[in-house]
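Work Package 4 report. The design task specified in the project plan requires that, given a folded chain encoded as structure tokens, an amino acid be chosen for each position. We show below one input record used in the internal validation round.
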């Protein structure tokens, strides 16, 4: 009996509430070089202070395995949305969307959506799913505590 194929594409959306302002959360997300808070990305090849712009392509290294990946900034709506595509391995494409929404009571909702496509998607999903569930929480915690990025002087790719 054949094994049923997973639903395509594989996806998950994770939410958290933060007491930090939309502006401070957006500043943390849009500084693509500061990934000290991110549970899946160890470092990038971007200089600190470079903000996300559509069309920007850069490299990053995963925390799970020292494998370089290319990241393409797809869409930027300042203070609201950042959409990127991650190409790490042939056979899998990952799309990530960060959304920030302010509520009436003064809190901010952060949502992190990830979608995987390709024949290797089930394997990659099994590796990253539990870490992906932590991204929004780690982002909120980093902004609320005012965590400063660790300065990297040299990146080996």
């Amino acid at each position: 009996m054949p094994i049923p194929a997973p639903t395509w594409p594989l996806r998950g959306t994770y939410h958290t509430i933060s007491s930090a302002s939309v502006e401070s959360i957006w500043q943390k997300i849009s500084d693509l070089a500061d990934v000290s808070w991110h549970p899946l990305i160890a470092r990038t090849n971007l200089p600190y202070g470079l903000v996300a712009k559509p069309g920007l392509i850069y490299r990053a290294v995963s925390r799970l395995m020292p494998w370089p990946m290319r990241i393409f900034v797809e869409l930027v709506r300042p203070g609201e949305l950042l959409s990127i595509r991650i190409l790490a391995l042939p056979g899998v494409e990952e799309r990530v969307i960060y959304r920030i929404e302010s509520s009436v009571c003064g809190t901010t909702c952060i949502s992190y959506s990830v979608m995987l496509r390709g024949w290797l998607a089930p394997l990659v999903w099994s590796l990253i799913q539990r870490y992906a569930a932590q991204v929004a929480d780690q982002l909120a915690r980093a902004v609320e505590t005012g965590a400063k990025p660790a300065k990297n002087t040299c990146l080996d790719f």
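Residues 149-157 have pLDDT under 50 and may be disordered. Validation will be extended to a larger panel in the next phase.
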